[in-house]
Amino acid sequence: MSEPLSTDFIHEIVTEDLAAGKCPDGVVTRFPPEPNGYLHLGHAKAICVDFGVATDFGGRCRLRFDDTNPTRENQDYVDAIERDVRWLGFEPDAPVRFTSDYFEQLFQWALALVDRGRAYVCELSAEDLRLHRGSLSEPGRDSPWRDRSADENRRLLLAMRAGDFPEGSRTLRAKIDMAAPNLHLRDPVMYRILRASHHRTGDAWSVYPSYDWAHGQSDAIEGVTHSLCTLEFEDHRALYDWFLTALDIERRPRQIEFARFNLSHSVMSKRKLKRVVEEGLVRGWDDPRLPTLAGLRRRGCPPEAIVSFCEGLGVTRRESMVELARLDHAVRERLNLTAPRALAVLDPLKVVIDNVPEGEVRWFETAVNPEDPAAGMRRLPFSREIYIDRADFMLEPPPKYHRLSPGTEVRLRSAYILRCDHVETDPSTGAVTLLHGSIDPDSSGGQPADGRKIKGTIHWLSAAHALPAEVRLYEPLFTAADPEATDDADLLAAVNPESLTVIERAWVEPNLADAAPGERFQFERVGYFAVDPDSGADGLVFNRIVGLRDSWSKAVARG
């Protein structure tokens, strides 16, 4: 085994455990998502930690679905989670596992605790359970059924499994300490009666294990050596250890907690994400405005950039707020190296070049990606009528304006020097409708023969060859820097009304005619874009992944 690259506290603990001989079969970690929603960036960090530690120590990482609540889980979520994990570039230790694989073993262990007088069947309602639990300042109260005999508890638990009692009428609870300072030790629920069909076991079970009962035991069954989780599970650790001790399980996982992070102008609470989706504020779990991995994939973010972003956050014990611009930077850095270049005009203004004959087509070559010489060259057609972006022309420009205006020259990227000779406007509104210009025929490739200095360079498209496209521009979904801190009533008020702008008729270069869904491009001088799955026979559809620079967050900061 080579020395691990990371030096965070988790790596230090694992290194110590290996040196002490605590992992005779090697390091085993796991990623244990609940299949009740889509993965988001917070999960991506957990995946990077779980798989990264296993990889660094030459170990294995399991993917195990914690499928203990059939009322909220389904196979679609399972499929989506598997797809996301592999999309990020991680391959779980085969086979993919489920807590439901261990339902029988868990139930037999529960019976063993009942027989040892360490668990009992309780008939308190959910509300009474809450009231009996007490608070941080007050001890809980014993259940009236806490002192039933082991034989009676066994009979009742088997009857619960057989479906003899109504849903919610009874639970199985661990018998620990109702006065424990740690509320998780106050006789926690191990099983509840649920009349629900499970996505894998169907109607075979009438009782389902709680997360706290199933989690540590499932880790032990799988031989997990290090159970890596976020800080909200720190208080649960004592309960996991109690169960393992009560069952006489010798080789137990070591739980290590690390801090989660929040992303500015976004939410990563599964409950809030679900609300945003179900109330129609976005188009679905894969909406590119969401921090879900499905949304980021649809937007066009490279998985390598997401992994780089997560690894760059480090592993700490302090929760943090991470600026959205940091994610954008990681995405931009990756795309700059890998994305082919293309010309696109989102807000077209037509220019007629009067000294180019009608019907004549000239061709220019330019790099597919200047950062990658191996990518080669691409050809661009040039004709009498071209489109430029409306933002690249002003009738009355301010000082030091280096784009096009009446009587001035600009460089058409990779083509010619263009001069604006005449402007047509709408008589009623004064809006510019058409430009007439001329090229310097001796400036092929954008270099004037006389060496005069041309300060401005703009992009363009041959109008006769350009392809129509729909372009979707995304901004952060929330205007509030920390929407996680808002209550449910204020969450909707924090939604950014300009989070999506749809340009129904933009133009792109003809080389993109066969672009496939998911392909990424840098639209020169505009930003990075990816082909949306909606592209097809009806035309090209592009999602903006990220701009060429972080202009949005700076604008928000300026207020």
Largest sheet: 7 strands, mixed
List segments where confidence is low: pLDDT < 50 over at least 5 consecutive residues.
552-559
Strand order of the largest sheet: 12-25-26-27-23-24-13
Distance from N terminus to C terminus (CA atoms, Å) equals 52 Å
Shape descriptor reads: elongated
CATH architecture of the largest domain: 3-Layer(aba) Sandwich
Classify the beta-strand content into a percent band.
15-25%
What's the quaternary structure here?
Answer: single chain
Question: Average pLDDT, to the nearest integer?
Answer: 94
What is the fourth-level CATH superfamily of the largest domain? HUPs
Portion in helices? 25-40%
Number of domains: 3
By helix and strand content, what is the structural category? alpha/beta
Number of strands: 27
Radius of gyration (CA) equals: 31 Å
**CATH topology assignment of the largest domain:** Rossmann fold
The first-level CATH class name of the largest domain: Alpha Beta
